[in-house]
Amino acid sequence: MNWNRRVQVLVGAAALAAAASLPVAAQAPTPAAPGIPVNPSLVGDTSNVAKEAQGWLADLIRINTTNPPGNEQVAAKYIAGILEKEGITAEILELTPGRSAVVARLRSAAVANPAKALLLVAHMDVVAVDKSKWTVDPFGGVIKDGYLYGRGAIDDKGMLAANLAAFVALKRANLRLNRDVIFLATADEENGGDANIKVLIGKYWDKFAAGFSINEGGNVFVVRGKVQYVGVQASEKVSGNIDVIARGRSGHASQPTKDNAIVHLAAAVGKIGAYTAPVHLTAIVRRYFEGLAPLEDDEIGKWMRSLDTSDRGEHAQRVLSNGSPLWNAMLRDTIAPTILTAGVANNVIPGEAHANLNVRLLPGDTIEAVVRDLTKLVDDPLVKLEVKPNGGLAAPPSSLESDFYAVISKVAAQEFPGAAVLPFQSTWATDSAQLRLHNVQAYGLVPFPLTEEDLKRMHGEDERIPLAAFNKGVDVLARIVAEFAVTR
Ligand SMILES: [Zn+2]
Known about the structure:
The chain is α+β, with helices and mostly antiparallel strands. It is built from 16 helices and 17 strands. Strands 1, 2, 3, 6, 7, 8, 15 and 16 form an 8-stranded mixed beta sheet that branches. Zinc ion binds at residues 123, 155-156, 189, 216.
């Protein structure tokens, strides 16, 4: 049944009068918000599959995939087992010893059309934990006060389990698909080593080639108890590293000279720390602030609207940058010193000292330009800056005009009435950059409504997901997938 057309037909007053004579069950459902009809999910009620998926998530948390070393193969086999039970063929894609991805496909036709296919992506590896700071076992899959605790509960096993639930729900509903839907669990996202998505694409692209994808990267942001906005990631910043090297005379610490490498390095790092890169508004960030302005208080909203003005723009940029590290990082390249290395003994002046700068570039900016600017700023012949290898590659942003972006926006607006749906440029990197480089319209949306307080725990202590938010996310994701891939 086409619920969309049905609801539209019933909107007119005459139709409403006619509907009054229909049996209650046949009448259109009550609109959730003015103009937004409730659209029953094509895959039906997802509460049962969400409950099962809570169990999968707890099990996945118990499989320790801390990267390094990752050991994602164990998780891949676990996922393959769930898929096989549903009658879905799953294929383990070997990467390096002990590390694998897993892929499965629901077909729409005998011959696949990769340009139309939809890819559900999540990574299986997690970042390390400092166990002493956790109040529960980070690999226990513990449920407490309505939360499921554990490393990866949100990032990214939560999304992994939700993708799996949406995929399984689609299979169980046995609907006709207008495009292939592909489930992919990746390895080595957090460390970007020799089992990462770049390697996976190089080896196995044909197994999961798609025109559209949904992955982590964006979020459903809960502020003061309600969803303020849904940020759909369509672009991301690019990570790279710069080695700052100071070279001086090494020697006995009892007779110091002015060319001490540590002193020169420290001065250089001090200057770099005080430096702020210029603002550069990308199209997505401009739309983000335009959309957020009416949701913030008047004062902040005013500055968001002034960002691009010639008279108040600079002040607006300062106010917003000072107001939020996220907003600051959305507006400009950022440079964070992260590692200092120097010295071998208390009484020896080292000849060399290093600092690592982690740089996050706006799409379009280059790390070479940052090196040039910082070299000028440091202005010290004893200090050199060099780009380290293996930096990220800038990918073109995903389109905000694609059919899939429209579906994500529509479903998000229905599921979170009153919230804005905004394009989002993440300050962090995801696997989607590599997909975008392969012409995939890749979007990021972790579908769980989460507070700042819960989001902060990712990569931190006591990572957890509210079970209610998980269930909601499964429903959101299943609706997005069905809305895009099911033939009506
Ligand atoms: Zn992640």
